[in-house]
Amino acid sequence: MPAKTTTQLKPIIFSTPMVKAILEGKKTQTRRIIIPQPHAGIRRCPFVPSRYEDGHGREIKVKYRMDDILYVRETWFYDKTDKKCYYRAGAEKYEDYDPTEWKWKPSIYMPKKYARLFMVIQNVKLQKLQDITPSEVRAEGIIEEEGDGLILRDKLEAQRFEDLWDSLNAKRGYLWESNPWVWAIEFERVPYDNEGLMY
């Protein structure tokens, strides 16, 4: 990726299972669809800010860059009584959790001030979705606990990733079978406070 001079703090949405995988240290990669999809392939170009364009000469906008800090938006609930934010990922641990009283709010509406997970981007690359490798599937948080041998495990994990991908993206028109172009983002959790300072 092209060099950058300023680290930016950006939001990123994760489903509850993926938040759990991050918390457990199982997820260190994510893939995000490039919108709009490039046409006629991708090539490097020194004449556009992102340094990438499609086969028709249109710039491919870069949303995430190395060293950017991502803060996770997840399903949440703010209790005005005790003035505390709770998270769907891990709610089963709360002794006072009452599903009839708690009204979970969609992740997209989470304010930055309630974020609890921050990651620094280690690497970003463009790739076709189906070019993902077995090790990258595992880095996506798809861990197959059972299986007889490495080959079977890889097949099981790959199928789980395909199923997960389609459950999240099929309605948007980006099925696994369509093999869309994606940003493959590698990240590492970092200590970070909501004032924007490392601690």
CATH fold field value: Archaeosine Trna-guanine Transglycosylase, Chain: A, domain 4
Number of strands: 9
Given this structure, which CATH class is correct? Answer: Mainly Beta
From the N-terminal CA to the C-terminal CA, the straight-line distance is 28 Å
**Anisotropy-based shape:** globular
Q: Could you outline the blueprint of secondary structure elements for this entry?
A:
Layout: E1 9-13, H1 16-23, E2 29-33, E3 42-44, E4 52-54, E5 69-73, E6 76-79, E7 84-87, E8 118-128, H2 134-139, H3 150-169, E9 181-189
Parallel strand pairs: 1-5
Antiparallel strand pairs: 2-9, 3-4, 5-8, 6-7, 8-9
State the main characteristics.
two-stranded antiparallel ribbon, 17% helix, Archaeosine Trna-guanine Transglycosylase, Chain: A, domain 4, 3 helices, alpha+beta, globular, single chain, 199 residues, 9 strands, 5-stranded mixed sheet
